[in-house]
Design goal:
It is a single chain. By secondary structure, the protein is α/β, with parallel strands linked by helices. The chain is built from 17 helices and 9 strands. The strands form 2 sheets. Strands 1, 2, 4, 5, 6, 7 and 8 form a 7-stranded mixed sheet that branches. The protein has a two-stranded parallel sheet with strand order 3-9. Helix 16 links the parallel strand 7 and strand 8. Helix 7 runs parallel beside helix 9.
Amino acid sequence: MSDLLKNNDYKNWLVDLKQKIQQSQIKAALAVNSQLILLYWDLGKQIVEKQENSKWGSGFIDQLSKDLKLEFPDIGGFSSDNLRYMKVFYLFYHNSFSISEQVVRKLENPERINSEQVVRNNEENINQIANKIPWGHHILILKKIKNINEAKFYIQQTLKNNWSRAVLLHQIESNLYNRQGKGVNNFALTLPKIQSDLANEIMKDPYSFDFLQMTEKYNENDLEKALTHNITQFLLELGTGFSFVGKQFPIQLANKEFRIDLLFYHLKLRCFIVIDLKVVDFEPEFAGKLNFYLNVIDDQMKHENDNPTIGMIICKTKNTIEAEYSLKGIDKPIGISEYELLKILPEKFKGSLPSIEDIENELKNNA
């Protein structure tokens, strides 16, 4: 028997803790994620406080796990590892909230920092940002993220986009936090503020096409085909709201046909989005050509209830100053970003790799 079970302080606290869990009707609350996360927050808080104020030894969490699993055998979540994650969860957000709260209060009135108010505000904060996504998502964030603002970003994006844990992991590993909202653009000058903010939010720099395998001497047509053959992953990288319209989309003007690399419609922005792919460094004339496409789309396809068409140039590399000067004087909304490829195969392997069409034909023949 653990020495803790002979400790009256521990036994009394354990009785109170069990009663609290029972009173919160945890069995029913397990179905409600917010209640579960709040319970884990409270358990993490109590574990931290008991370890700070009581000399119960290093085996305290392991013993607590055994006692809770014995009392609630049909409820998961009380493993030693999970209890330790509750502690980390509480410390991560509590410390960040407390620092922010104290800074604000010191600025307002250095003599009146009410600890009870800090606690209440912490609970309000945890209600607002941390109890809306599943616990498994929280564990993933705690494992991967050390910055509170970055953690909040991924929580908010998970809520907004309904990400699974696998998608969340992909977005974290692709460094979405440092890529989203980036890129040179003129949105603030060419769009109303609400639409400008949203348009800026959907921009990334660089775009990560790590799901592609390209050979060394690929061209724009190869990149375009690869992206559209992997449209599900491409749409995931672009972000929520993009609806694919077509590739090499034809537009007619004065008996002459032009073709747009990729055309999308964005459901939140309520506008067409023209993407011009460039496998070379950015050149200023790219902006002029894209401006021409946007004018034609607005004249020929834009519905009266649609917002102005947005253009995006995604190129191999760009000089920021050149890109900024290229957009000066253009009244159509345009963004300029780079892309990155992580998998480049030697050209000699090109002929040995089956194409998408070859794979599809092989599947049809074997059906």
